[in-house]
């Protein structure tokens, strides 16, 4: 990576952590679920309790297979008469078709992919609220994460939701794609640093947000990932529920997703070993703020934070991740 590019990455990452950065997430999938049975339908298809959600609220949820293997980590925003699902870019078409297969004759549910008509961008960092205030947005900081409301900024309606994809302070803004350029420019003019895809990937690995085809695959379930907060253990049956309930009841999670601080570069798919014995596999790797960081699954019995490992022929150490957690709920 060239020196200037590295400097730009570091500036953007620091802005997201302690200032303000803007990330264009318009390419993330957006699926509208509407009609009378929309909440019950999503309740039955994913890990979160949608039936308890009220208009203006939202939640993260995981879509899983019948054997509780992960498909995607998504966010649902409860609107007046529909739910807006925000899904990973590479799961947009897959999830739309997957959900469509589970709509039966008697179900009053409709799906619409609105990705191409809606722009979305995220303001990330401790100064995010100040940026919104300068734009004339009402104060939203006292509401729970994923709370959202429509706001008129310079004559254009945008939905502002509290929280970011990375668990850092900030807000998601969603609105008409044709009218979004001026607002994005205004935010940049107020000092927000553009967060590129490379910078976002660095932060993703640093925070520990899992993504499809890396940490979210049919090799892993949500408990292994550490997505406890997306799962309702009290609601009724849903796809994958039996497996997740059994793992929770018998504390049967055999591996966990951890961060790994590495002494050198390596590649995803490399085996993680301790004293020559394989204990896991690396799923992502990138230089983050001058250090090589990775994500990987490690057997529970091998240990956790502070464990010294080898990733291929590279020394490593297990570190904690802010985005996920690895304890059984009380």
Question: What this model shows, in words?
Answer:
The protein has 330 residues and is an alpha+beta fold. Helix content is 22%, strand content 33%. The chain contains 8 helices and 17 strands. The chain has helices spanning 3-18, 38-45, 92-101, 128-134, 181-189, 197-207, 222-225, 241-249, and strands at residues 21-24, 29-34, 58-64, 70-78, 82-87, 110-113, 118-124, 148-153, 156-162, 170-176, 193-194, 255-262, 271-274, 277-288, 291-299, 308-311, 314-319. It has a 6-stranded mixed β-sheet with strand order 8-9-10-7-1-11. Strands 12-15-14-13-16-17 form a 6-stranded antiparallel β-barrel. A hairpin with a 7-residue loop joins strand 9 (156-162) and strand 10 (170-176). Helix 1 crosses helix 6. The longest helix is centred in the N-terminal third of the chain and has 16 residues, at 3-18. The radius of gyration is 20 Å and the shape is globular. The N and C termini lie far apart (45 Å).
């Amino acid at each position: 990576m060239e020196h200037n590019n590295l400097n730009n990455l570091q500036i953007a990452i620091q802005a997201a952590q302690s200032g303000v950065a803007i990330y264009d997430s318009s390419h993330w999938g957006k699926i509208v679920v509407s009609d009378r049975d929309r909440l019950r339908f999503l309740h039955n298809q994913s890990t979160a309790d949608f039936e308890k959600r009220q208009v203006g609220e939202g939640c993260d949820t995981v879509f899983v297979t019948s054997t509780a293997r992960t498909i995607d980590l998504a966010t649902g925003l409860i609107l007046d008469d529909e739910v807006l699902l925000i899904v990973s870019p590479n799961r947009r078409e897959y999830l739309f078709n997957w959900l469509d297969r589970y709509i039966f004759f008697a179900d009053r549910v409709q799906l619409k992919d609105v990705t191409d008509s809606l722009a979305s961008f995220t303001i990330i960092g401790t100064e995010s609220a100040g940026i919104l205030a300068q734009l004339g947005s009402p104060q939203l900081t006292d509401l729970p994460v994923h709370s959202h409301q429509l706001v008129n900024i310079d004559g254009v309606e945008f939905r502002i939701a509290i929280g970011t994809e990375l668990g850092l302070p900030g807000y998601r803004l969603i609105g008409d794609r044709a009218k979004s350029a001026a607002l994005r420019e205004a935010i940049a003019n107020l000092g927000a640093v553009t967060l590129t895809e490379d910078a976002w990937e660095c932060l993703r690995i640093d925070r520990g947000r899992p993504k499809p085809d890396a940490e979210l695959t049919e090799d892993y379930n949500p408990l292994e990932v550490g997505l406890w907060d997306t799962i309702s253990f009290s609601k009724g049956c849903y796809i994958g529920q039996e497996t997740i309930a059994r793992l929770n009841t018998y504390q049967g999670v055999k591996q966990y997703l951890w961060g790994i601080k590495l002494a050198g570069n390596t590649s995803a798919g490399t085996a993680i070993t301790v004293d020559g014995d394989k204990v896991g596999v690396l799923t992502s790797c990138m230089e983050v703020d001058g250090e090589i960081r990775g994500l990987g699954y490690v057997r529970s019995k091998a240990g956790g934070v502070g464990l010294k490992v080898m990733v291929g022929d590279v020394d490593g150490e297990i570190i904690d991740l802010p985005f996920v957690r690895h304890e059984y709920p009380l």
